[in-house]
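Local shape tokens:
==================
===
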Amino acid sequence: MKVGGELRVTMSLCGLPNLPAFSHVAEAVGLGAIGLDVATVITTRLGRVAKSTGFTDALIEAEAQLVSLAQESLGGQCYSADVIDCFAVRMIAHLDPDGTEPTEAQLHDRRHLTLVTEKTGMTKLTGLLPPTAAGHLRAALEPFTSPRIPTFTSDPTQPGAPDPADDDEVDPLLRDTRTRGQKLADGLLQLVTTAAGLPSMPRLNGAAPTVNVHATLDDIISGRGVGWIDGLTEPVPASTIETLL
């Protein structure tokens, strides 16, 4: 309904027609050259800029370019609405460069991280990161998912060791079968564990962050039984206790 209002011709009080706010989009939609999903992306993105800058010649030109891009094809397929949205974001940065600063500040204020312990003992991480923080995190985690990083080889330090990216040369027993999500989770844990021990990190009562686990001496010696980790309600098996010790 909203995009329809942006594209329809209205009548003025004196009886003359008012052209649509986004005439290029309206014409393309009328001809069936672009879909409503693309039209919504263009009118929404540029409409926000128009509220602060008005319908300038530069904005109208950007609208025409986005409509033209939406009708082009790459490899036999037209650009999707998501790709057009990326183009629109880049154009908006040039149309209203001052507008990115308050947007960045608003996004920074919305940052948060929540850890929720589930009944299974797993902990669910949810949150939001501003663009800068997300960029740092993505850059730090990217090496952990790279196929060029040797993992689980028989002797990765030996010259000429097989490249794990080549599945034909890797022993099936040594092949890394983790999913991308599992690699990211392992990478995040490794980053946190390494960073927590650095001298520059905050300390609690002068001590570095430590995982406290509680178990009886008999269970530790026998390798049986369960233990408890501070902050978690579910018990952990003896194998986990042995790993932490």
In short: The first strand starts at residue 10 and ends at 11.
